[in-house]
Amino acid sequence: MLQPWLAWDRDAILQGEIWRILTGNLTHTNWAHLLMNALALLIISFIFRAHFNAKRYTALIIVLSIGIGGGIFATNMQWYAGLSGVLHGIFAWGAINDIRTKTKGGWLLLVGLIIKIAWEQTYGGSASSEALIGARVATEAHLIGALIGTSSGFINFFSSQQDPKKQHNRPN
Fold first, then answer.
1. Which of 78, 89, 115, 167 has its CA 20 to 30 A from that of 23?
2. How far from chain centre, in Å, is Cα 111?
3. How many C-beta neighbours within 10 Å does residue 55 have?
4. What confidence tens digit (pLDDT) does each residue in 85-128 have?
5. pLDDT of residue 171
6. CB–CB of 17/9 below 8 Å?
7. What are the Peptidase S54 rhomboid domain coordinates in residue numbering (predicted)?
8. Is 92 in contact with 109 (CB distance < 8 Å)?
9. What is residue 164's predicted lDDT score, i.e. its pLDDT?
């Protein structure tokens, strides 16, 4: 298995294995963790498909992955694996873009995400998720991903305010 070489590991990164900043988001603790994140990626991608094209989606995932991988250094985490931080970032970005394009439910999705993140920061991750993935839920990554996704969404929101052609940038 590649996980020992790719997971986010503070000590390994500090010793020069900087690829782990990016690849930690691509590794998982077990098959259930991988399947859960893959299904969430499919669902979130479907929900916000109107806002993405391949180039924008790839760039967002890379920005989120590197931002989360770097942001985890501000926490006490020593080890991390999973896509959930990126998923929270994509969700936040999509909700902001729903709001930007006046898509019904955008505000509800954003408020729901804020409530979820606040709950996790207060009470921790879901015990059932922790049992399923065999690890502590990395709520720090969820928060960092949501903050980066929200920031990226607002950058897109305000840049589209400057350029009327970007107001309804929905790929065919």
1. 115
2. 16
3. 9
4. 999 999 999 999 999 999 999 999 999 999 999 999 999 999 99
5. 47
6. yes
7. 16-155
8. no
9. 52
Nearest to 149 by CA among 101, 109, 104, 120: 109
97 Cβ contact list (under 8 Å, min separation 6):
48, 51, 103, 106, 153, 156, 157
Q: What is the pLDDT of residues 12-64, one digit of tens each?
A: 999 999 999 999 999 999 999 999 999 999 999 999 999 989 999 999 999 99
| 77: its two tokens | 């985490």
| Bridge partner list, 9 | 79
pLDDT at 156: 79
- How far is Cα 38 from Cα 30, in angstroms, rounded to an integer? 12
Nearest to 84 by CA among 145, 20, 7: 145
